[in-house]
Amino acid sequence: MSATLQGILPDREIAALFQAGALSTARERDGDQIQPASLDLRLGPVAYRVRASFLPGGSHSVADKLERFALHEFSLQGGAVLETGCVYVVPLMERLALPDHVRATANPKSSTGRLDIFTRVLADNAQEFDKVPPGYHGPLYLEISPRTFPILVREGSRLSQIRFRCGEPTLSASQLTELHERARLTTAEAANISDAGIALSIDLSGDPGTLVGYRGKRHTGLVDVDRRAGYPLADYWEPITRRGTGELVLDPNEFYILVSKEAVHVPPDHAAEMTPFDPLVGEFRVHYAGFFDPGFGHSAAGGAGSRAVLEVRSHDVPFILEDGQTVGRLVYERMAARPDRLYGTELSSNYQAQGLKLSKHFV
Asked: Residue ranges of the 2'-deoxycytidine 5'-triphosphate deaminase C-terminal domain (predicted)?
């Protein structure tokens, strides 16, 4: 791989990492594992129930910490249930031997976030979750904590994804403004753009009784993460409709699926990521699954702008959301090259041209 590449690595460059030995795997790669700007990560054959979340720190491997903090080791080869409120660590099939000019970041897959499964990738000696430094050689692990639904996982299940970066691809406010003027990144009449990205707001509009979101039910049956269209929506979700003047009170520690007011567009030569919301503006977390691939909402990929589905959880105190309130920002980054395939019809993507939409598991 050329050290002159600058930006997010596209699909063919991720394949080249495998060919060069910078990426390796314990089992033959899945045919659809490489996405336009990321690689799906697969669970290995064993899992560990741990006392609590942890970081290995600068002088420890994850395996060292598992010897101290693991309560129980069990197999995933025939499938296993992960319970809500528990923390698990699973060694991943994929292993890295990154060149010195390539670094990586991870994020939950969209369906993982929409199931309220909290996941974070760990690397040896890491002092941050979901970040892998340039030149890292070693294994990867996934911390998993189901929050609302118990889940069934197995060896090979894909809950997280990883992106590879060279250089500094993030657009500044002026560059983002220029791209928005050229490619219309959101449908907002007056886009709110800063160095932190382009703002997205919440959609709670409509006539009284209009569906505006869903709240996850407690004490449900389990969800098999690999099973599509297998579960009745009504057994797992409570619909939320617009009432009164349109505000929504987020109850502490409840999980909500909401949708952005603006439709979003990611041009084929860029990728985007939803950033954590500023806690100074409100004690709630928006969007666990932050990667938006090249072609999301793009007409060439079968979209005409797609809403951003928002996974929302309030912390500590009730919090009132109002229609049009800013809830997050999209950071745009340059691709090192346009991917061979775009998010959308070329990949039978689940969430192209979406509105308010639950994960692929529900009907």
From this structure: 173-362
| Domain locations in the chain as residue ranges | 7-166, 173-347
Q: Which fold has domain 173-347?
A: Deoxyuridine 5'-Triphosphate Nucleotidohydrolase; Chain A (2.70.40)
SS3 call for 348: coil
Residue with tokens 């899945």: 30
Cβ neighbours, 10 Å, residue 138: 17
First and final CA of the chain: distance in angstroms?
Answer: 43
pLDDT tens track for 227-285:
999 999 999 999 999 988 889 999 998 999 999 999 999 999 999 998 865 555 555 66
DSSP 45-100: SEEEEESS-----TT--HHHHHHHHEEEEEE-TT-EEE-TT-EEEEEEEEEEE--T
**Whole-angstrom distance, CA of residue 336 vs CA of residue 100:** 17
Q: For residue 153, which of 80, 103, 213 has the smallest C-alpha distance?
A: 80
The bridge status of strand 151-153 relative to strand 223-224 is parallel
CA dihedral 224, 226, 229, 234 (to 10 degrees): 30
Tokens of 190: 């007056």
Amino acid at the residue 60 = H
Q: Take residue 298 and report the two structure tokens written for it.
A: 């793009």
CA distances (Å), 251 to each of 85, 313, 330, 351, in order?
Answer: 18, 8, 25, 27
| Helix, strand, coil abundance in the chain, percent, nearest 5 | 10, 40, 50
Tokens of 334: 């340059």
Tokens read off for 19 = 């060919």
The CA distance from 70 to 91, in Å, is 13
Question: Cα–Cα distance between 162 and 311 in angstroms, integer?
Answer: 20
Cα(284)–Cα(317) distance, integer angstroms: 9
**How many Å apart are CA 82 and CA 100, to the nearest integer?**
36
* Cβ atoms 319, 286 nearer than 8 A: no
Q: Domain spanning 7-166: which CATH class is it, in words?
A: mainly beta
Which residues of the chain are under the pLDDT cut of 70?
1-3, 276-285, 287-289, 299-305, 344-354
